[in-house]
Design brief:
386 residues, mainly beta
């Protein structure tokens, strides 16, 4: 790398663009993007904060600014992101490029003046302006990285909330493969529910392996019974046709008799909510089996805004002796989707007395004013208490 002159930084005299203008985005690399990981994948105590872009398992790939803006920060660390460069854009977003081998020459010069063990340097808007496609760094494997790749993040500059870079990068990434579910988990509420006659968590394989299609629909043939209040969770992954890697699920919906009781959209994660991934997912199961079952209901006190539920917080009440038709819908950012239908038969059991469903006098007022995001799905018609 010492023979390559990285001198593509723009003229320091160029003024930064005004805030809130329209900005065009382009890829950060000059070859086809293949992902090793996507935004929002559940990890212990945090969500994966960006896209992991493959660099063919080598260092030394050229990294370019994804949009006009200015270099606002450089960080160097033996851990975490290693060498990272941040570019602020005039639309109010900041892109971050991490695990770099080195920066472009004009930024390296800034580090040579201070040393580079562990540091963070910030710059004003007029110091290092860049245009989309300007060379800003060389890819590497620094920091907490298990192999050469580029970790690309996108932030709201003011709040530092993490945003899914697919919002800008999707046009440059090929993906015609639907997400796939592997297994369903039933979680009876303690003292309030039974599933298949039992009060403990149960898992059931429902997927089909290596089904790389744009859309699919499955009907689970297993016989299920329930009585009382039961929550559900799903182990699922997204895929693409370009690689063996698997990814997190962007969109999940659970419907009961055609009515939506749960929805998740992992498009933005506030910094303060990262640790709640351990409550949305079954962390204890992950510790023992290294697979994430993501719950289709909201645990008490959770603030995670990617989750939306009905008034019962996504928990299903089986209080009639009849078949309940449940459907999971999984969808990725590109619109590839899969459906999983299964039937649960309400079977009365004297060990449990189902809680009377809570009702509201004015569903519209509740939906519009009171309970977002804890209860943020439009309510069904009011049921009479029994």
């Amino acid at each position: 790398m010492s023979c390559i002159a990285l001198t593509s930084c723009a003229d320091d005299s160029q003024e930064s663009a005004s805030q809130n203008m329209s900005v065009d985005y382009r890829p950060p690399v000059d070859y086809e993007i293949v992902l090793a990981g996507n935004f929002g994948e559940p990890r212990p105590y945090h969500f994966h904060g960006g896209l992991d872009i493959k660099t063919e398992n080598v260092e030394g790939k050229r990294i370019y600014a994804v949009a006009d803006g200015y270099v606002s920060r450089l960080t160097v660390n033996l851990y975490g992101f290693g060498n990272a460069v941040y570019v602020a854009h005039p639309d109010g977003l900041t892109s971050a490029y991490c695990h770099l081998q080195r920066f472009a020459d004009c930024y390296e010069e800034q580090l040579q003046r201070t040393g580079r063990d562990t540091l963070s340097l910030s710059f004003p808007a007029g110091r290092f302006p860049v245009k989309a496609g300007d060379l800003i760094a060389i890819s590497g494997n620094t920091g907490h990285s298990t192999g050469p790749h580029l970790h690309l993040e996108l932030h709201d500059t003011k709040t530092w909330q993490l945003l899914d870079p697919m919002e800008k990068m999707a046009p440059f990434i090929a993906d015609t493969v639907a997400p796939q579910a592997h297994s369903l988990m039933a979680i009876p509420m303690k003292g309030e529910g039974l599933f298949n006659g039992g009060s403990g968590k149960q898992t059931f394989g429902i997927g089909q392996s290596d089904l790389k299609v744009r859309s699919s629909e499955h009907t689970v043939g297993q016989h299920f019974t329930a009585w009382g209040r039961v929550g559900f969770a799903l182990w699922a992954d997204d895929y693409s046709e370009k690689t063996y890697n698997h990814y997190g699920i962007r969109h999940t919906r659970l419907l009961v008799d055609g009515r939506e009781v749960f929805r998740s959209d992992v498009g933005a994660v506030p910094v303060s909510c990262h640790s709640e991934v351990n409550r949305w997912g079954d962390y204890q199961h992950w510790l023992h089996h290294r697979t994430w079952y993501m719950k289709s209901y909201r645990e008490p006190g959770m603030r995670l805004p990617v989750i939306h539920t009905n008034f019962e917080q996504g928990i299903v009440t089986f209080d009639e002796e009849r078949p309940y038709r449940l459907t999971y819908e999984l969808r990725d950012y590109q619109g590839n989707s899969s459906l999983y239908h299964f039937t649960v038969h309400g079977r009365r059991d004297a060990r449990v007395t189902p809680r009377v469903l809570r009702t509201v006098l004015n569903p519209y007022r509740l939906y519009g004013e009171c309970l977002w995001p804890r209860h943020s799905l439009r309510q069904p018609s009011v049921r009479s208490s029994r």
